Amino acid sequence: MLRKLKSQNIARESTIDLDYLLGSGSSANQFFMYIDKNLIPWDIYDPEPENCSFVAYFGKVLQAVDCALPNQGLVFYVTMIEMKEMPSYGENVFVLILGDEFYRIPDYIDKVGGVFKCYGTRQIREQLNLYRPLLKLSYFKFLVLGQTIKNLIHRFVRKSRYRLKKIKTLFLGRTKIVPIYDIPPGYLNSEDLPIRPILDRNCDVFFDGSVIQHKYPVWSLRYWSKTPKAHSREQMVDNLKRFKDKNPQFQIHLALSVGFAAFNYTPQSTYSQNLMNTKICLAPRGTTLETYRLFEAMRYGCVIIVEYLPSRWFYNGAPVIQIGSWQNLEPVLNKLLNNPVLLQTLHQQTLDWWETKCSEKVVGKYMASEINALRLKF
What we know:
The protein has helices spanning 18-21, 55-68, 123-131, 139-172, 221-225, 228-246, 259-264, 268-276, 292-299, 329-337, 340-358, 360-377; strands at residues 30-35, 38-41, 75-79, 90-97, 112-117, 180-182, 203-210, 252-257, 278-283, 303-306, 321-322.
């Protein structure tokens, strides 16, 4: 999913003199995007930098970091999937990896001051613990197991290098291996809007997005085998349509697109206004267990139904409804939509969770706290 962001002209050619930018006399913190090997200076206080859709959330996150750790001479590189190298290294260098869906560990883990990463690094354990594919085997669990093995292959070499580096550090003590900290993916297609009371919202259930990532020809194996995302979302759509047919009194917003890119180009104002007018938002899994949609809905105080969530400090205890199978969607929706008190309670709890766990300011303060702890430790 996140790889599609690379096609949005985020990266552009740069002729920047890195030594000039990282002058030793500067005490101000510096922020850069490092996309497709291009180094782009980033003014995090610019609310609308050119062609950078992910920065609305992380720009504000880094503003909070900058306010908490002013003039420390820190260098921040924000990248999507760069695992091999960074433009510079040192204990004052911190990297944010936003788009790696293979749960990999970067090669430069022993050369920087710290790494903050969306989607984590424990994919195999999370997938197996949540879905337990060997118990009551199903086709969906078979797809999950296949995806897990594929991701294992992608990360095997870097995981091996990481283990060797840890062994070297243990016996020789010449280098340090910094932790990798989990951070939320944040929102993408979302604008600032006043919060609308949930009982005043006209849309009862909302889903606007893709079911399949790409259209494959009928002779393609991927056309027949599907992915966990496609299989899961097809089940969700089928059960939502069934619920809609049985319950015409409820307003259901179901808008389907082909691929993440098409969804991403849905006009921001239209998508945001529709979501703000929604009581219940369905947030099915994407390529990974985590999606932007969850945070977009949480920011607006929607009641959120998801499949499963991995163990993260910003998910654990969240007031979202985790549904084991989309076949159970109908009774869950009936319970929620016929209980306005419950809807109101979950609405307020969701807004509170956003403000105290997932908002830009809170995530920025979390990062600043961990950076302080790392600098004291090393």
